[in-house]
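Dear colleague,

As promised, here are the two records you asked about, laid out in our usual form so they can be pasted straight into your sheet.

NAME FIELD: protein one
SEQUENCE, THEN STRUCTURE:
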Amino acid sequence: MKRMGMIFRAKANKALDRAEDPRETLDYSYQKQLELLQKVRRGVADVATSRKRLELQLNQLQGQSSKLEDQGRKALALGREDLAREALSRRAALQQQVSDLETQHQTLQGEEEKLTLASQRLQAKVDAFRTKKETIKATYTAAQAQTRIGEAFSGISEEMGDVGMAIQRAEDKTAQLQARAGAIDELLASGALDDPTGMAKDDLTAELDRLSGGSDVELELQRMKAELAGGSAPKQAIEGGNAGSGQAAPHAEQERPRFDKQ
């Protein structure tokens, strides 16, 4: 089972490698970094909002504290020490709240500064990654194009391989058809096959051709005999085309008649 699992993972990893496009992976990573940067910026905005709300509360509490202080002074001036004591007690409680809010305000302000600095650093990293990403993508695209051109020139690409196989099949079929046509011509010429168009020779024509071929052989044979014998009559007979016919060839020269002088 472990071996099957390892084989499955190896094949799956190989399939993923073939399907993975580095350019798409880089774009996806850049998109995730942009999302993270947006989250950091929203965090900074949330902290700033909380800090601003604390500042508003501090201003309100400080305003109430000042008002209670004024009321205590007026009550003390009128001889109402009890009212002055109550106003000052309330003011002291407000001052404790103000002190707590100021501590929270300082904490939030520190967190805001840290998040702002982190956002700026992350922004710089995202910008640098974007530049590097585009450079890698351009380099990969150029290398991919160069590889395809090299494969096309060398004939090892899938497209060129298909073209080469198509050319080879076409050449094989052409050679097969040429061989078949030549064989059919030879069979028709020898008479082994009948010509369906009616252009084949009939028996009489074939016989005449055979006799003509045989007479040519006989004429050539008698010409060679005449040359060996040194005679001219057979040669003349051969040239006149009367060999073997039983007729004597006419004399080349006839005697001229004589006329007596008177």
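NAME FIELD: protein two
SEQUENCE, THEN STRUCTURE:
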Amino acid sequence: MAAGASSLDAVQRDDVWTVAAVAVIAFILADVGHEAIGHGIGYLLGGGRSWIQTTTRIIGDQQLGDPGWRILDMGGPCGNLLFAGLAWLGQRAAGRKRAERLRLLLWLVMAFSLFWGLGYLIYCGVLGHGDWFALVAGAKREWLWRGVLIVAGIVLYRTSEMLAASELHWIVSSGEAYWRARAGRLTLVAYVAGGMIGCAGAALDPGGPMEMLNSGAASSFLAAVGLLLVRGQFGRFADKAAIAALPASVEANVIRRSVGWMSAAGVVATAYIGVLGRGVRIKL
């Protein structure tokens, strides 16, 4: 009974506001990976030299030809995959103790990046536009290639769910009696916080407030729905060795309240909405 009570207490003691703060920073990093790093480098490689960078897109001063515009478009998903890979590697270098909030950040950067970058395959195949569509635009039997994008997106998105479930074992232990409730609470809070900052980041976009739905909600609430499905896959995987080596007490992994993380999230979110959201002029 005592062990069960301790596990239930851990579910309740994960600080919601700190989890939300970490999720806000994680989504902003995933967005920067896609829009600023990915598309920014893609625009440079495609021949662009000056542009306005926002949270949702690049507004270029130069009209790119073919293949320049394809390189620009593909830069976004490539940026997501790069950031997901770096977060995956960072998880393995985070150390064993007192790193629960950092581990959560790395896990969420990976999850947001993968769900955005690979879920975009489905989006592009269905609607016939978007970043991944640059691979097949203008091809013979374009409709067939759109079908390939959809199928590939479904398979890879599902794979991302399983990878996210496996990596969540860096934070939540399957030895906890109430791991299902804890995993569900963490992922729900992160999903809502990530979606809210994703929409807020587009509120001041030069394209108008509708970008909150067209881009903000699409890249957050829609793309990251896989977060809500992670709990269902969690039980299929074993705990990571670093977590299994910790004491049996669940206290070691509780996401405790951190004023530092909440303050950092406030500062980063303010800059994200008020500065990058409005657009930053870049000229090289």
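A couple of things worth noting about protein two: The first helix runs from residue 2 to 13. Residues 2-34+97-278 form one domain.

Best,
R.
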